[in-house]
Write a structure and sequence with these properties.
two-stranded antiparallel sheet, disordered N terminus, 11 helices, alpha+beta
Protein backbone atom coordinates (compact mmCIF):
# COMPACT_ATOMS: atom_id res chain seq x y z
CA UNK A 1 0.00 0.00 0.00
CA UNK A 2 1.06 3.62 -0.50
CA UNK A 3 0.11 5.19 2.81
CA UNK A 4 1.17 4.97 6.44
CA UNK A 5 0.53 1.85 8.45
CA UNK A 6 -2.96 1.45 9.92
CA UNK A 7 -1.67 2.14 13.41
CA UNK A 8 0.35 5.21 12.44
CA UNK A 9 -1.17 8.29 14.08
CA UNK A 10 -2.03 11.40 12.18
CA UNK A 11 -0.78 14.86 13.13
CA UNK A 12 -3.53 15.25 15.73
CA UNK A 13 -2.65 12.05 17.56
CA UNK A 14 -5.67 9.97 16.46
CA UNK A 15 -5.43 6.70 14.59
CA UNK A 16 -6.54 6.75 10.98
CA UNK A 17 -9.34 4.55 9.68
CA UNK A 18 -8.23 3.56 6.19
CA UNK A 19 -9.68 1.70 3.25
CA UNK A 20 -7.69 0.26 0.38
CA UNK A 21 -8.34 0.89 -3.29
CA UNK A 22 -6.39 -0.40 -6.27
CA UNK A 23 -6.00 1.16 -9.68
CA UNK A 24 -4.03 -0.03 -12.69
CA UNK A 25 -2.02 2.48 -14.67
CA UNK A 26 -0.04 1.99 -17.85
CA UNK A 27 2.67 4.59 -18.44
CA UNK A 28 3.92 5.92 -21.73
CA UNK A 29 6.91 3.61 -21.38
CA UNK A 30 4.57 0.71 -22.13
CA UNK A 31 3.21 2.61 -25.10
CA UNK A 32 6.78 2.89 -26.39
CA UNK A 33 7.22 -0.87 -26.27
CA UNK A 34 9.21 -1.30 -23.06
CA UNK A 35 6.38 -3.18 -21.38
CA UNK A 36 6.30 -0.92 -18.32
CA UNK A 37 3.02 -1.29 -16.45
CA UNK A 38 2.19 -1.79 -12.81
CA UNK A 39 -0.75 -1.80 -10.41
CA UNK A 40 -0.70 0.79 -7.66
CA UNK A 41 -2.45 0.37 -4.35
CA UNK A 42 -3.33 3.58 -2.55
CA UNK A 43 -4.85 4.12 0.86
CA UNK A 44 -7.59 6.69 1.21
CA UNK A 45 -8.45 8.16 4.58
CA UNK A 46 -12.14 7.81 5.38
CA UNK A 47 -12.19 9.70 8.66
CA UNK A 48 -9.30 12.11 9.02
CA UNK A 49 -10.01 14.43 6.13
CA UNK A 50 -6.55 13.87 4.68
CA UNK A 51 -6.26 13.86 0.90
CA UNK A 52 -5.85 10.61 -0.98
CA UNK A 53 -2.26 9.51 -1.33
CA UNK A 54 -2.55 8.34 -4.91
CA UNK A 55 -1.08 9.06 -8.30
CA UNK A 56 -2.75 11.99 -10.03
CA UNK A 57 -3.15 11.62 -13.77
CA UNK A 58 -2.48 14.54 -16.04
CA UNK A 59 0.37 16.02 -18.02
CA UNK A 60 2.91 17.98 -15.91
CA UNK A 61 3.70 21.58 -16.90
CA UNK A 62 7.17 20.46 -18.08
CA UNK A 63 8.85 17.06 -18.49
CA UNK A 64 9.65 15.65 -15.06
CA UNK A 65 8.06 18.59 -13.23
CA UNK A 66 5.77 16.44 -11.09
CA UNK A 67 4.67 16.88 -7.52
CA UNK A 68 5.64 14.26 -4.94
CA UNK A 69 3.06 13.24 -2.37
CA UNK A 70 4.14 13.78 1.22
CA UNK A 71 4.02 10.55 3.24
CA UNK A 72 3.94 11.95 6.75
CA UNK A 73 6.89 14.28 7.34
CA UNK A 74 8.86 13.12 4.30
CA UNK A 75 9.55 16.47 2.66
CA UNK A 76 13.25 15.76 3.36
CA UNK A 77 12.98 12.75 1.05
CA UNK A 78 10.93 14.50 -1.61
CA UNK A 79 13.34 17.43 -1.90
CA UNK A 80 16.25 15.01 -2.36
CA UNK A 81 14.33 12.93 -4.93
CA UNK A 82 13.51 16.06 -6.93
CA UNK A 83 17.22 16.91 -7.10
CA UNK A 84 18.23 13.40 -8.16
CA UNK A 85 15.37 13.15 -10.64
CA UNK A 86 16.66 16.28 -12.38
CA UNK A 87 20.24 15.00 -12.51
CA UNK A 88 19.89 14.22 -16.20
CA UNK A 89 22.71 11.64 -16.69
CA UNK A 90 21.17 9.51 -13.94
CA UNK A 91 17.62 9.96 -15.18
CA UNK A 92 18.55 9.06 -18.75
CA UNK A 93 20.16 5.88 -17.46
CA UNK A 94 17.17 4.80 -15.35
CA UNK A 95 14.75 5.52 -18.19
CA UNK A 96 16.55 2.81 -20.17
CA UNK A 97 14.89 -0.24 -18.62
CA UNK A 98 16.91 -2.72 -20.68
CA UNK A 99 20.21 -1.28 -19.47
CA UNK A 100 19.09 -1.26 -15.84
CA UNK A 101 17.99 -4.90 -16.12
CA UNK A 102 21.26 -5.85 -17.80
CA UNK A 103 23.46 -4.26 -15.10
CA UNK A 104 21.34 -5.24 -12.09
CA UNK A 105 23.54 -7.05 -9.55
CA UNK A 106 21.13 -9.06 -7.39
CA UNK A 107 23.92 -11.18 -5.85
CA UNK A 108 25.94 -8.34 -4.35
CA UNK A 109 25.95 -8.88 -0.54
CA UNK A 110 26.46 -5.12 -0.07
CA UNK A 111 23.33 -4.29 -2.05
CA UNK A 112 19.61 -4.83 -1.58
CA UNK A 113 19.22 -7.64 -4.08
CA UNK A 114 18.21 -5.07 -6.68
CA UNK A 115 15.15 -3.87 -4.73
CA UNK A 116 16.32 -0.26 -4.32
CA UNK A 117 17.45 0.04 -7.94
CA UNK A 118 14.16 -1.38 -9.24
CA UNK A 119 12.08 0.90 -7.01
CA UNK A 120 14.07 3.98 -8.01
CA UNK A 121 13.84 3.07 -11.69
CA UNK A 122 10.06 2.76 -11.35
CA UNK A 123 9.91 6.14 -9.63
CA UNK A 124 11.95 7.84 -12.36
CA UNK A 125 9.87 6.29 -15.15
CA UNK A 126 6.66 7.46 -13.50
CA UNK A 127 7.99 10.97 -12.90
CA UNK A 128 9.12 11.33 -16.52
CA UNK A 129 6.33 9.40 -18.23
CA UNK A 130 4.27 12.52 -18.89
CA UNK A 131 1.16 10.73 -17.59
CA UNK A 132 1.16 12.03 -14.00
CA UNK A 133 1.18 15.43 -12.34
CA UNK A 134 1.63 13.91 -8.86
CA UNK A 135 3.68 10.80 -8.05
CA UNK A 136 3.68 8.85 -4.78
CA UNK A 137 7.20 7.58 -3.91
CA UNK A 138 5.89 5.06 -1.35
CA UNK A 139 7.34 1.96 -3.04
CA UNK A 140 10.79 3.53 -3.07
CA UNK A 141 10.41 4.63 0.54
CA UNK A 142 9.50 1.11 1.62
CA UNK A 143 12.47 -0.36 -0.25
CA UNK A 144 14.81 2.10 1.47
CA UNK A 145 13.22 1.59 4.90
CA UNK A 146 13.54 -2.18 4.64
CA UNK A 147 17.33 -1.93 4.35
CA UNK A 148 17.78 1.21 6.48
CA UNK A 149 15.33 1.09 9.41
CA UNK A 150 16.16 4.67 10.40
CA UNK A 151 14.20 5.78 7.32
CA UNK A 152 11.26 3.39 7.76
CA UNK A 153 9.08 5.77 9.78
CA UNK A 154 7.31 8.97 8.82
CA UNK A 155 9.34 11.47 10.84
CA UNK A 156 11.82 14.06 9.64
CA UNK A 157 15.30 12.77 8.83
CA UNK A 158 18.46 14.26 7.39
CA UNK A 159 18.14 14.69 3.63
CA UNK A 160 21.86 14.30 2.95
CA UNK A 161 22.05 11.06 4.94
CA UNK A 162 19.18 9.64 2.93
CA UNK A 163 20.75 10.78 -0.34
CA UNK A 164 24.08 9.12 0.54
CA UNK A 165 22.34 5.88 1.50
CA UNK A 166 20.22 5.86 -1.66
CA UNK A 167 23.14 6.58 -3.98
CA UNK A 168 25.29 3.95 -2.26
CA UNK A 169 22.44 1.45 -2.49
CA UNK A 170 21.96 2.21 -6.18
CA UNK A 171 25.68 1.83 -6.75
CA UNK A 172 25.87 -1.59 -5.10
CA UNK A 173 22.67 -2.80 -6.82
CA UNK A 174 24.12 -1.77 -10.19
CA UNK A 175 27.79 -2.57 -9.57
CA UNK A 176 29.21 -4.14 -12.72
CA UNK A 177 31.98 -5.80 -10.70
CA UNK A 178 30.72 -9.20 -9.62
CA UNK A 179 33.89 -10.44 -7.89
CA UNK A 180 35.74 -7.74 -5.98
CA UNK A 181 39.50 -8.21 -5.61
CA UNK A 182 41.47 -7.09 -2.56
CA UNK A 183 43.10 -3.68 -2.99
CA UNK A 184 45.29 -1.42 -0.87
CA UNK A 185 45.56 2.35 -0.54
CA UNK A 186 48.15 3.90 -2.82
CA UNK A 187 50.73 6.34 -1.36
CA UNK A 188 52.57 8.86 -3.47
CA UNK A 189 56.13 8.15 -2.24
CA UNK A 190 57.34 11.19 -4.12
CA UNK A 191 55.60 10.41 -7.41
CA UNK A 192 53.67 13.07 -9.37
CA UNK A 193 50.08 13.64 -8.23
CA UNK A 194 48.66 12.81 -11.67
CA UNK A 195 50.22 9.34 -11.61
CA UNK A 196 49.07 8.61 -8.04
CA UNK A 197 45.53 9.86 -8.73
CA UNK A 198 45.21 7.75 -11.89
CA UNK A 199 46.45 4.61 -10.15
CA UNK A 200 44.20 5.20 -7.14
CA UNK A 201 41.18 5.62 -9.41
CA UNK A 202 42.08 2.46 -11.34
CA UNK A 203 42.23 0.49 -8.11
CA UNK A 204 38.93 1.95 -6.95
CA UNK A 205 37.30 0.83 -10.18
CA UNK A 206 38.61 -2.68 -9.69
CA UNK A 207 35.88 -2.96 -7.03
CA UNK A 208 33.42 -0.23 -8.00
CA UNK A 209 31.93 0.38 -11.45
CA UNK A 210 28.40 1.70 -11.88
CA UNK A 211 26.44 4.60 -13.26
CA UNK A 212 26.71 6.22 -9.80
CA UNK A 213 30.51 6.05 -9.92
CA UNK A 214 30.49 7.34 -13.50
CA UNK A 215 28.24 10.29 -12.62
CA UNK A 216 28.67 11.21 -8.96
CA UNK A 217 32.10 10.13 -7.68
CA UNK A 218 35.29 12.14 -7.49
CA UNK A 219 38.65 12.14 -5.70
CA UNK A 220 39.94 14.07 -2.73
CA UNK A 221 43.65 14.72 -2.29
CA UNK A 222 44.73 14.13 1.30
CA UNK A 223 48.10 15.54 2.40
CA UNK A 224 49.22 14.72 5.95
CA UNK A 225 52.57 15.71 7.47
CA UNK A 226 53.79 14.21 10.75
CA UNK A 227 54.79 17.04 13.14
CA UNK A 228 57.53 14.87 14.71
CA UNK A 229 59.33 13.12 11.85
CA UNK A 230 57.93 15.34 9.04
CA UNK A 231 56.96 12.28 7.01
CA UNK A 232 54.43 13.20 4.33
CA UNK A 233 51.53 10.98 3.26
CA UNK A 234 49.65 11.95 0.08
CA UNK A 235 46.67 9.82 -0.96
CA UNK A 236 43.70 10.20 -3.29
CA UNK A 237 40.42 8.97 -1.82
CA UNK A 238 37.07 8.57 -3.62
CA UNK A 239 34.09 10.62 -2.42
CA UNK A 240 30.40 10.59 -3.23
CA UNK A 241 29.33 13.96 -1.87
CA UNK A 242 30.81 17.07 -0.28
CA UNK A 243 29.25 19.02 2.56
CA UNK A 244 29.30 22.76 1.97
CA UNK A 245 28.35 25.36 4.60
CA UNK A 246 25.33 27.51 3.87
CA UNK A 247 25.89 31.27 4.05
CA UNK A 248 24.90 32.54 7.46
CA UNK A 249 23.17 35.77 8.29
CA UNK A 250 25.27 38.80 9.14
CA UNK A 251 26.25 39.32 12.74
CA UNK A 252 26.78 42.68 14.40
CA UNK A 253 30.05 43.23 16.26
CA UNK A 254 30.42 46.09 18.73
CA UNK A 255 33.82 47.80 18.49
CA UNK A 256 35.11 50.46 20.88
CA UNK A 257 37.52 52.83 19.13
CA UNK A 258 40.07 54.31 21.56
CA UNK A 259 42.15 57.20 20.28
CA UNK A 260 45.79 57.66 21.26
CA UNK A 261 45.31 61.34 22.13
CA UNK A 262 43.21 60.39 25.16
CA UNK A 263 39.84 61.54 23.87
CA UNK A 264 36.73 59.71 24.97
CA UNK A 265 36.41 56.26 23.33
CA UNK A 266 33.64 55.86 20.72
CA UNK A 267 31.57 52.73 20.25
CA UNK A 268 30.66 51.58 16.73
CA UNK A 269 28.69 48.57 15.45
CA UNK A 270 30.01 46.72 12.37
CA UNK A 271 27.97 44.19 10.35
CA UNK A 272 30.03 41.12 9.35
CA UNK A 273 29.51 37.72 7.79
CA UNK A 274 30.32 34.74 10.01
CA UNK A 275 33.53 33.94 8.12
CA UNK A 276 34.87 37.48 7.76
CA UNK A 277 38.46 38.15 8.85
CA UNK A 278 40.03 40.78 11.09
CA UNK A 279 41.00 42.69 7.96
CA UNK A 280 37.36 42.82 6.88
CA UNK A 281 36.42 43.95 10.38
CA UNK A 282 38.86 46.85 10.03
CA UNK A 283 37.51 47.76 6.61
CA UNK A 284 33.98 47.67 7.98
CA UNK A 285 34.96 49.83 10.94
CA UNK A 286 36.56 52.38 8.61
CA UNK A 287 33.37 52.53 6.56
CA UNK A 288 31.25 53.04 9.68
CA UNK A 289 33.58 55.76 10.98
CA UNK A 290 33.56 57.53 7.62
CA UNK A 291 29.78 57.38 7.48
CA UNK A 292 29.55 58.80 10.99
CA UNK A 293 31.90 61.61 9.95
CA UNK A 294 29.56 62.54 7.12
CA UNK A 295 26.65 62.77 9.54
CA UNK A 296 28.58 64.73 12.18
CA UNK A 297 30.38 67.59 10.40
CA UNK A 298 30.86 70.08 13.23
CA UNK A 299 32.79 72.75 11.35
CA UNK A 300 30.58 72.80 8.26
CA UNK A 301 33.47 72.18 5.85
CA UNK A 302 32.19 68.76 4.74
CA UNK A 303 34.94 66.97 6.63
CA UNK A 304 35.45 65.69 10.17
CA UNK A 305 39.15 65.80 10.87
CA UNK A 306 38.94 63.71 14.05
CA UNK A 307 37.13 60.83 12.38
CA UNK A 308 39.47 61.01 9.37
CA UNK A 309 42.40 60.62 11.77
CA UNK A 310 40.64 57.67 13.44
CA UNK A 311 40.01 55.99 10.08
CA UNK A 312 43.64 56.36 9.10
CA UNK A 313 44.70 54.89 12.46
CA UNK A 314 42.45 51.83 12.00
CA UNK A 315 43.86 51.15 8.52
Amino acid sequence: DDGPDDDHPDGRGGALALTTTTTTTTSSAAKEGRGFSRSYSSRVSSSSGLSSRSYRSGAPPAPGAVGLSNLGNTCFMNSMLQCLSHTHPLTEYFLDGDRVARELNVDNPLGSGGAIAKAYADFVRDAWSGDFSVVVPSTLKRAIGKHAPQFSGYQQQDSQELMNFLLDGLHEDLNRVRNKPYTETIESNGRPDDDVAAESWRRHQMRNQSVIVDTCYGQLRSHITCPNCEHESITFDPYLSLSLPLPSAKRHVAVTLSRLDGRRPTKYVVALDARDTIGQLKDGLCAVVAKAAGNDDDDGDGDDDDDDDATAAVK
